[in-house]
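Researcher:
Attend to token order:
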Amino acid sequence: MYRDVLAIVLAGGRGSRLDPLTRDRAKPAVPFGGIYRIIDFTLSNCINSDIRRILVLTQYKATSLNRHIDQGWNFLCRELDEYIEVIPPQQRIAETWYQGTADAIYQNVYTIEKAAPRDTIILAGDHIYKMNYARMIDFHRQQRADLTVACQPSSLEAARDFGVMGTDAEGRITRFVEKPKDPPPMPGHPDQALASMGIYVFNTDAMYELLFQDAARKEASDHDFGRDIIPRMVAKGMRVYAYPFRDENRKTAAYWRDVGTLDAYFQTSMDLIAVDPILNLYDREWPIHTYQPASPPPKFVHTDPDRRGSAYSSIVCQGVIVSGGQVYRGILSPGVRIHSYSLVEDSILFEGVDVGRHAKIRRAIVDKHVRVPAGFTIGWDRRLDLERGFTITPEGVTVVSKDEDLERFV
């Protein structure tokens, strides 16, 4: 176990591009894959990497996230100095919300100092991937680095949304530009750029000095690692290294997804139901942990040809009852009920959704506890869905918000 390492998970993002899924919850708390929350992947990576001192920094709409971590991640032993601790904004240093990623860490320096880590790994709580952080920490120490940044090749178009770096032959970062309009390509790869994954390992003492210097700049800084801290470190000639992403997903291509938009979220979710899914959730050597409530197993009811409870190419979670309805390529979260003669195609139904008789849902995301009335349709008539106030993504996915009262449209 890496007892001299502290992990800090930044979990305070608004996730505005995921609205309405983020109207009542932070982006890291958005459900994913039926039983998981997005933050479960980062936290599972920490546990699987033998990192068991973890701070989760929250900010916006954190109630759902706090409850999930309290219920599903309370198994670490404080007596052995193992913990996952949720830290809300305390305004100990400044009377403001976090102004950027660096400011979020700066405002929690007091808590970090109490843990006294040799190295601090800073992580985002809103990405889907598997990674052994221990290997990155070992690399960081071997290089005697002040900072190590995880990276992977990206298309030039996608790289506009990330930090882009250049390196020398030894992997030392020689330039770093945050979200450039014209990303510099990798040598020998004119169609690719080397993109930051937002995963940082700092020598903690060096990090303290940098954070205090940045805070002193006040309005002259965005107080962000990508925009301010890293470029200044490179310019000063500090030891800043790139660490190539090593995937624990055990597939041909490395898997890392930023589900920052509704369409990206929908496609990443639907990838899970492929015959050979890109993301392997069934790997016992790298388990993804989450909160598992005490629920009965799923049940399928009725076998008549015109009233058969069945689900094809789908994920069906605990507590689901498919009662005489048909599901094709669906993700049915815990407690979903599919009534007779209903049809669900290419859709994600969150916990507790109830689909009435003869209702039809296609290419949709339906948030928690929505009751779909008998004969109701979602995703079949774009004009009608817009009139009802539903969100429709650029790729035509209809999104129904949490607790939406659909009876008023009947």
In short: The longest strand covers residues 192-203.
